[in-house]
């Protein structure tokens, strides 16, 4: 359950950051996850995501004018596998967000992201991004719960913080509906909950994520075609 363990480590880092005000807590959690052998950065692609996914490619995929896009290249964490390239368009869409007892409409940007480029074996990819059984989802939720309660017992976090993090973590672990994709790469997995396509080819992987109005099947096909374009450039 490497993927689930990684979620726990990141989650605990987030809780620590909120409790102690330690700006390095999340990155420390990431480094701990790396030490567990979860993934290895593909240094060859550091700082070059915009060469794999150009503005023109993104605009063609989304069907929006390139000149209206905003570009954000996030390199906050030192590990290149956490770098993310985002192209966004403000098309006036909104989504509901609940704050306390109120529900308000907030901007919902159309977005295309390339991230998660890293070295990985095909065996590990197929294991980490396989279709999960209900038992595995339940096990991952219990793993997170036990880890949080251990921190409560040590006085590191409060029960309220554990409950908040537990609810967030259960969402991460529970929303893992997956579909195997055979049309691109040596192996690929579509996660409709967050509209992400994970692609493996020749010892490395990457992730494409899209936020756009449309049927899940249509969004998946857009990313499959885009992933094929990226692979053809490598």
UniProtKB/TrEMBL annotation:
PROSITE patterns: PROKAR_LIPOPROTEIN. This is Lipoprotein. It comes from Algoriphagus aquaeductus.
